[in-house]
Amino acid sequence: MDFKDIIEPIKKKYPSALLPLSENKENYDITLNTVFSGEGGTITYHPDGDSDTYMCEGDRYFNIVGMEVVLPDNGTVTAAEAAAEILWCSAPFGRYVVIDWSLFEEDEADKYALQAKHLDIKIALPYCGKKKIRRELKQQIKLLSGDLCLFR
Predict the structure, then answer these.
(1) Which domain holds residue 105?
(2) pTM exceeding the 0.85 threshold for the entire prediction
(3) By three-state DSSP, how is residue 37 classified?
(4) Residue 36 pLDDT > 50, yes or no?
């Protein structure tokens, strides 16, 4: 299944999505290139629309890619909808190869520190009277903007 098939179900089920589409695409690409090396398991979708997708929250991609997905026979859940929900539930945790919350927390802290620095510069820029300093600040904004494209 291609990512373009998953985009609409993600938008439909999670309209206030926190992640930009580019980050969902990045997580999708990671799962496609991940080799199964875990315990596996089963993710079951029931005819009433309920599922146990929440069980993959906190799990890693190397295990999730080996899980069997069971869809209901009545067609209430499509493969694209199931893939979107699994991607959404696993995205915050899946890329970390070890169960070490400190890695996750450091990564998140780095993202927010970079965003904070970017905002500080943008706030200070209008109040800067010296052209040389303004040029330096604008240059820093350009450098930081390249790094922010993969962040929330």
Answers:
(1) 101-148
(2) no
(3) coil
(4) yes
